[in-house]
Amino acid sequence: MKAANDRIEQLNETIQSLESENKSIRESHKQEIDEKDEETKDLSRDLEKFSAEQSDKLATLRAKLATALQSQAPTNTDMGENGTSKKRKMSFSDYPIDAASRKPTIQEPCHFHLLGDCRRGARCRFVHPDGDDLVRLRLELKEKKV
Ligand SMILES: [Zn+2]
């Protein structure tokens, strides 16, 4: 009977030591978990701060861009043939080009001009004939087509 009691006592001791070990493991893990929680909180705080900074920067850049575009945009209003001001869509021909580049650089009649509508106008790189030349060239174009 004594041997059995000893055995039980021994087992109880083992159980107790296991329990205390278990408890200390749980505690140390709890501490780790707490630390991780803190880290996570710190990181999300950093992240919040970072994205706030980024959206501030983005807003500043957008404002700068808007200002730059406004100061560069040419006037949107052209005088119409009858002297009244007419609004039209912006096109690449609205952008200022220096006088030299307005001269035709390709010594060929502009196909669109001959057809009656060259949207590039004075900035077209092809020749825009007028008067008799224009009439003649338009006729030639018609004959070529037939
Ligand atoms: Zn043209």
TrEMBL record:
Region spans: Disordered: 1-45, 69-90
Record keywords: Metal-binding, Zinc, Zinc-finger
Bias (Basic and acidic residues) ranges: 1-10, 20-45
Biased composition (Polar residues): 70-83
C3H1-type zinc finger span: 104-131
GO molecular function: zinc ion binding
Domain C3H1-type intervals: 104-131
Record protein name field: C3H1-type domain-containing protein
